[in-house]
Amino acid sequence: MILDTRHLRLISAIDETGNLARAADRLNVTQSALSHQIKGLEQALGLPLFLRNSKPLRLTTAGRKVLIFARKVLPEFQDLESELKRMAEGETGRLFIAIECHACFEWLLPVLESFRRKWPEVEVDIRLGASFDALPALQRGEVDLVVSSDPADQSDIAFEPLFGYEALAVISPAHTLADKPFLLPEDLAGETLITYPVDRSRLDVFTLFLRPAGIEPAGVRQIELTAVILLLVASQRGIAVLPDWVIRETGRESGLAVRPLTETGLRRTLFAAVRKGESETAFMADFITIARTRGVVTT
């Protein structure tokens, strides 16, 4: 390609200043270097771009065509350069988030509210990871962060710990199990377990509590909304197992009984999975900090 942005800036500067000396000063080059660039460009194009004996220096018809193009294109280049510079400095960019736990919506939304106030120019989107393979999507660049409690050994992915949580049973205070200090897997054998509408492989109560003990609940009822889950539990329609942050933020006034799973409790850690090296980007690092802060809030 003969023309590049250097030539477009050259034509624009000469037209605006009216002579080579002032244009050279604006472009931070010598007048002789600027004159050499003009001659080289005209030779390459096979057309004169300036009327040589005019004062101020005037463009030919061909030169004006180049000038019109320069005025249209240069602002777009400048905007792009500015945006790329801000991206390099971590001021703007894209944060597409996939969450592998349905309950994370309860925790994630206030995190995003705080994040968007600080980073209004970062494009944010959320995808529910239960409907697709989140980590491969992260590797392919389709998402930028995955919220997960299941870290995997991936050479190109870093798992940044956010906070620890405990899976707790939520029971009606009128239920006989409410008299127990903690629940064992066999306690759920005759109960209806109320869960979010996700696969069992993504629910701690199945993967870490019931399945290892070979226990199957009497029934499973899937409900989308946490408020409805708590209402059904209060009505003795079943028992739910929820992360402690969900109970803390949505169930504190419900009057429901909350019990640990086993005497020692069922504790997990929530992670932010990101492509290696990207957690140091300013807005990504701040999102992780906000997420950690939000996760350790206690009553």
Automatic annotation (TrEMBL):
<dbReference type="InterPro" id="IPR036390">
    <property type="entry name" value="WH_DNA-bd_sf"/>
</dbReference>
<dbReference type="GO" id="GO:0003677">
    <property type="term" value="F:DNA binding"/>
</dbReference>
<dbReference type="GO" id="GO:0032993">
    <property type="term" value="C:protein-DNA complex"/>
</dbReference>
<dbReference type="InterPro" id="IPR037406">
    <property type="entry name" value="MetR_PBP2"/>
</dbReference>
<dbReference type="InterPro" id="IPR036388">
    <property type="entry name" value="WH-like_DNA-bd_sf"/>
</dbReference>
<dbReference type="Pfam" id="PF03466">
    <property type="entry name" value="LysR_substrate"/>
</dbReference>
<dbReference type="InterPro" id="IPR005119">
    <property type="entry name" value="LysR_subst-bd"/>
</dbReference>
<dbReference type="InterPro" id="IPR000847">
    <property type="entry name" value="LysR_HTH_N"/>
</dbReference>
<keyword id="KW-0028">Amino-acid biosynthesis</keyword>
<dbReference type="Pfam" id="PF00126">
    <property type="entry name" value="HTH_1"/>
</dbReference>
<keyword id="KW-0804">Transcription</keyword>
<keyword id="KW-0238">DNA-binding</keyword>
<keyword id="KW-0805">Transcription regulation</keyword>
<dbReference type="GO" id="GO:0005737">
    <property type="term" value="C:cytoplasm"/>
</dbReference>
<feature type="domain" description="HTH lysR-type">
    <location>
        <begin position="3"/>
        <end position="60"/>
    </location>
</feature>
<comment type="similarity">
    <text>Belongs to the LysR transcriptional regulatory family.</text>
</comment>
<keyword id="KW-0963">Cytoplasm</keyword>
<dbReference type="GO" id="GO:0009086">
    <property type="term" value="P:methionine biosynthetic process"/>
</dbReference>
<dbReference type="GO" id="GO:0003700">
    <property type="term" value="F:DNA-binding transcription factor activity"/>
</dbReference>
<keyword id="KW-0486">Methionine biosynthesis</keyword>
<protein>
    <recommendedName>
        <fullName>HTH-type transcriptional regulator MetR</fullName>
    </recommendedName>
</protein>
